[in-house]
Amino acid sequence: MSSVDVKDRRGQGGNSDDEPDDLDPVVLRSRQLAIKGNEMAQQGHYTAAIELFTEAVKLDPRDFRFFGNRSYCFDRTQQYERALKDAENAIRLADKWAKGYFRKGRALAGLRMFSEAEEAFSQVLKLDKNCEDAVQELLRVRTSQIKEMGFSKAQSEAAIKQYDDESGFSSPVTQRIHQLNKGKDEKMDFKNPEGLTALWVGNVLPDKVDDKKLFKIFSRYGSVTSVRCLPEKFCAFINYSTKEAAGKAMHHLQAYECGGQKLLIKFPDNPILNGTGNTTIRKSNPHGTIILQKTKTPPTKVVQLPTPTAQEIQKQSGPVNGDECYFWRTTGCSFGDKCRNKHNPSSKGLDMKPWQLKK
Predict the structure, then answer these.
(1) What is the 3-state secondary structure (H, E, C) of the chain?
(2) pLDDT, position 327
(3) Whether 141 contacts 9, CB under 8 Å
(4) Which residues is 105 bridged to in the sheet?
(5) pLDDT per residue over 146-192, tens digit each?
(6) The dihedral formed by the CA atoms of 194, 197, 202 and 206, expressed in degrees to the nearest 10
(7) What is the pTM of this model?
(8) CA distances from 120 to 103, 123, 161 (A)
């Protein structure tokens, strides 16, 4: 499917190349132009091919192959917006033509709209389950989605291969990507609609990155009042004196390479800073109730965050969601069939966090 198409004209799947004797001269001319366009594209002359397909479309705008082939040429010349438009026109004319959805997926991937591209390639496999090109493109866009969270290509591919099913369709990892992307929109908006002054920073390798290094990096964008690394969780919390500085740092440092990893930055769910020097920290006491603790701190002083309670740092190991194994739903259970908790096949890796992906 990675090349131009010269068949599939009648019935969206027929392979007859015979032209009827009474074919309209205009339609015949359009197909002659398209044949020349195919030849140009196969030789790598994509600009010339685009011009020929454009002339063919003008003569016969009902032939979906012309749009599909021109979309291919736009894709090869990195004109992804135009490639997408042509792919959608091809689908409009032939909604059962698998190559139309393939061209759409390629264009969307070029625009870095990976979630939408995944849907398009999945549709290809519904129409043509033996399409190896679509399987490879699915792997590529799923890998790209994980890479955007800050992981390397090798880590991303390993995660997909470890947790994805063999059919090429949706899996717990894919579902988890969509869940993370949904929450990502709310907590990764550098415009900072909630006015927070704290940042959560993931992918922090404790053997390569320390508080001082993070302080130096994040101080470029405003007054940093505290830096706190959590080595066991491969993350850190950065507090600024103003909400503007926090948003600016997120905007400029998202996916910044530090210690061999790309930083993943978001606004945290719990430390809430109102930007006026009043630090509000939400924490649980031993009885499980929420306490709001406020401290008045000048912008130039370091805010010492409270030490987590035993309850906060205790790792969850018991059953979740009723009687399901916590480790099965995250990083994998070493007990296998001997585990006393349930291993639901559809839940494997479902609750895995980005920082729990193995190298």
Answers:
(1) CCCCCCCCCCCCCCCCCCCCCCCCHHHHHHHHHHHHHHHHHHCCCHHHHHHHHHHHHHHCCCCHHHHHHHHHHHHHCCCHHHHHHHHHHHHHHCCCCHHHHHHHHHHHHHCCCHHHHHHHHHHHHHHCCCCHHHHHHHHHHHHHHHHCCCCCHHHHHHHHHHHCCCCCCCCHHHHHHHHHHHHHHHHCCCCCCCCCCEEEEECCCCCCCCHHHHHHHHHHHCCEEEEEEEHHHCEEEEEECCHHHHHHHHHHHCCCEECCEECEEECCCCCEECCCCEEEEEEECCCCCEEEEEEECCCCCCCCCCCCCHHHHCCCCCEECCCEEHHHHCCCCCCHHHCCCECCHHHCCCCCCHHHCCC
(2) 76
(3) no
(4) none
(5) 877 777 777 776 666 655 544 444 454 455 555 555 545 567 888 88
(6) -170
(7) 0.48
(8) 9, 5, 21
Per residue in 37-78, pLDDT (tens digit) is 999 999 999 999 999 999 999 999 999 999 999 999 999 999
Question: Both tokens of residue 169?
Answer: 């369709």
Domains and CATH numbers, the chain: 25-172 (1.25.40.10), 188-309 (3.30.70.330), 319-356 (no CATH)
pLDDT along the chain (359 residues), means of 10: 58 46 86 96 95 96 97 96 97 96 97 93 94 91 81 70 49 52 65 89 90 94 94 91 93 89 85 42 39 42 45 49 76 75 79 58
Q: Which amino acid is at 160?
A: I
